[in-house]
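Let's sit down with a protein and look at its sequence and fold side by side. Once you have written the record down, we can walk along the chain together.
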Amino acid sequence: MDMRVNLAGVELKNPVMEASGTFGSGMEYAEFVDLNRLGAVVTKGVASVPWPGNPTPRIAETCGGMLNAIGLQNPGVDVLARRDIPFLKQYDTKIVVNVCGKTEEDYLQVVERLADEPVDMLEINISCPNVKEGGIAFGQDPKAVERITKACKAHARQPVIMKLSPNVTDITVMAKAAEAGGADVISLINTLTGMKIDVNKRTFALANKTGGLSGPAIKPVAVRMVYEAANAVSIPIIGMGGIRTGEDALEFILAGAAAVAVGTANFRNPYATLDVVNGIETYMRDHKIDHIRSLIGAVK
């Protein structure tokens, strides 16, 4: 039974990783999860300088999920290079660094800083607000998607994953723009914009008013978008959005994802990533599937 998958020349022992921002950089979960069993570990989003994030409250529970408006709080790329990358290098897993920024220059500073670091791939979070374009996310404008992808590819030494926002009219337009810009891989979906109001306090549950909705509630939307993107581009896709079990992950794989990322489930169950790995293994054994490649995009 072979669970290996290839993402732009990077071979993962299995298709399972965690979604950025739900696992720190692995340190917080290492006592629960054997990181050697994951195909890759994705770091929390990192910027060129430390970001303080948004004011509190910035997390709210919802039916079937949660809202977060953390604001990409992070200690900056220098701390990541000094502390987190050496920690992850102790394990037999691939390292994916998630990169965020508020301007194109912000992204490129991080990409260039990581050029000589021993990381396997870069995931570019284009759901960040573009401060030079009035705050609209890079990922909501196909021209901006193509431009930022081209710029990152021109400066990156590692394969580049573009993480797409679902807060768009047509995900295939954004997927094609990333592919046109030279993306090696795309990952989707990031969180859906949502809101919760505290009726007793008569105020917003989040200080930011809106936040990113994640968890099981968004899975059907995520599976649909992965399917649409997989049928629009020829580059590999990492699917995510509400995955808790091996069965959830297999939905994404059958829809066309070459790999999957487990996000919000980690907060409820710190063993969620291993549950997904074990669930896929069991399914392959029960259905006598020799190689996971035969499942990718099998549902048309």
